[in-house]
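To assess whether the prediction recovers the assembly geometry, we first specified each molecular entity separately, as shown.
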Amino acid sequence: MVSKTLNAPNGYKVRISLKTALGEDAYEWNQSEMFFFQATMAFAMRRHFQMETYNVDNIILCVQTSRVSFWFVVTSPDNTTMLIPKADVEKAVRMSRHRINNAFLLSDRTLEFLGIYPTLAAPVNPDTPPWLIVFGVVIGAVCVGIIALLISSLLQKRRKEKGMTEDGQDEEDMQVKGVENGINLDGTYNRGFTDDDRFTKL
Amino acid sequence: MRCLQVSNQDLEERIPSYEELEKLENEEAGDRPKWDNKAQYMLTIVGFCVGLGNVWRFPYLCQSHGGGAFMIPFLILLVLEGVPLLHLEFAIGQRLRKGSVGVWSAIHPYLTGIGIGSMCVSFLVSLYYNTIMAWVMWYFFNSFQETLPWSQCPVNANMTGLVSECERSSPVDYYWYRETLNTTPDIDNTGGLQWWMVLCHVSAWALLFICISRGIETTGKAVYITSTLPYAVLTIFLIRGLTLKGSLNGVKFLFTPDMNELMNPTTWLDAGAQVFYSFSLAFGGLLSFSSYNSVHNNCEQDAVIISIVNGATAVYAATVIYTIIGFRATEKFDDCISGNILTLLNTFDLPEGNVTENNYDQVLHSLNGTYPEVIQGLNLKTCDLNSFLSEGVEGTGLAFIVFTEAITKMPVSPVWSVLFFIMLFCLGLSSMFGNIEGVLVPLQDLGVFPKSWPKEAIAGTTCVLCCLVGLIFVQGSGNYWLSLFDSYGGSIPLLIIAFCEMVGVVYLYGIDRFNDDIEFMIGHKPNLFWQITWRFVSPAIMFVIFVFYFITKVQETPMYKAWNPESENFPTLEEKEYPSWIFAIIFILAGIPGLSVPLTAIYKCLRNRCCKKDNEFKQDDLNTIIYLIHLVILFKRI
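The predicted structure of the complete assembly is given in tokenized form:
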């Protein structure tokens, strides 16, 4: 049958999803568990109001289904015909939500109080966004690389200039070596293979 | 007119003869850079060809054009179009030993335009390609967190709920469009420079500069990592992917053949275009890289090997991508069904476990029979695995939205995220090496920079210039500019240039001379297959693809997809028309590289005509001087 909506202005519907939360380890929902729920709610009310002495009898349960879902209302300990307003119940539940969840090994999602939305976790904002740290490391490595590159090319140039002036006489004897790129020139520059003249300039 | 005569009599003077080449080879004279070993050359070429397109374009084409059936046109066109063009570029570069401008001006001065066109296209592509690298770097930097920032929506200002834009779309969409790009609703709003993107952009160009600063001396070392790492990462993802639930659904979806697609001409067109762009032909980079080889390198073998590697990589990458996509689709499908099941359980207060995936349809049917109005009111979502599998799986959408979402569902997500983005970065960087080579070498050949400048200075100046111009792409509207450049700058001009290349080599340089060259270089003449493809088949295919592409592009009104939170169908992207001033930009992007071929030819022709008289005058002058010197010597003897 379709779930009924009770005309209970001061009551809350509770929905429990044991199998979703615990899977194989799900315990059976029986009368003892219902009693435990009543005790937990009484505890929550006591914690919130601090002066009143709430008891298990003050938590009234009804419309239990196999889903597992049920409605509950809270009566005042002084006058059992008077119901505690919805807003106060909500405050009590919110205050002890974490304890209630843990009592049943459930979470906000699997122990639902329909109408009481869980508060969103405050986002953790670190002082330095983590990406800036990684960026800093990478840029640092890149800068070191660029500086190393420039220094090595300067050193190569200086070595080449020294080499050219010292053994000017040995140039003819030295073999024409293969060249890695245009900078490292050991040996006589063979003008027979220069490309300058061949180009049809624009 | 004299200049219309296509006389190539002076060709021998412009190109090195066989004897000169042998001498170069044996004595190792000359100042042209060389590869340290064959492996460096092969890795560089593989890296250039295997790029982001293999990962995010080919799988989409494969899946949308009939899965396994797409392999047929792809392989056929690979053999008829890709391999011959590749062999041609390798051979001509190795023979003439120059960069793209040098090669074409040596073949015939009027063809210098081809080289200039290649340079322009390489330049335009480099500009936007490195911005994609900047995006990859941004995601990479943000992967070093326990909870990946794109796995959940941020909380809004007063902490009452999630940010509306994110809630209506999805965390990954929001992260991509808002926190990464901060995209504007249309291309007219520039949105200003996004500082975090500028930082990533600058670091991408700085990293590229280090790798290319000394030409192949530095890139040759870098490719050992950038070309091999993607394969390692793909393998890791394959193993990881196959162990995830639902991965085989993805692979099946990818390869299930639909033979009817073969009747569709778009399939063949897309296959041809994909083969062409995948091989990075007509950029000039392949020519340059081949020219650093030894003269007797077997370019025929290289072309075949590279083609096989490229094709195999595309198929391999597609498999890996679709295992992960299959996993994501299955997860989404499961979530969808679970959501529906929960709704049913809650509405009808049924015990948990009563409705499972297996009996869901049955239960729904029976409930619909008894309580039809209630079921209607529930608005249950239709869960279709196939629709999840075919969601937005192309281009940047694949990498930054679909794949990142899949990664958030995997355990130990930051590790997979870091690996994935390193792989994308290496794929892109190795392609950038080729692009930049296609820009730097022609600039050096044209003599734009003074000869006294060292290589590092030339590379540095080019990088700084490209970085500055590339700032267009890190504005709010940068994404729209990038797709504009991609659609018009990197497509039609390449087809024109490749066609001119083929015609230039086969008919202007002379196919007979080309055959002799290859015989000199590798020891045997190219066989009948090459002759037929070079002369007729490949140019014909290029021409057909070009005509169809051109017609389709010209006929459709250029539209772009915009992320507009205020649009009606949000989060679906809104299709908008480009404003009228964009047409000028489109003309610059597509027209200038393409038109540079005929325009340079005309310019050279005109200059030749008016300078001809001057040349004759100089020759007479020289003769007179020689005569006078002879007289002086004669007199001295007397």
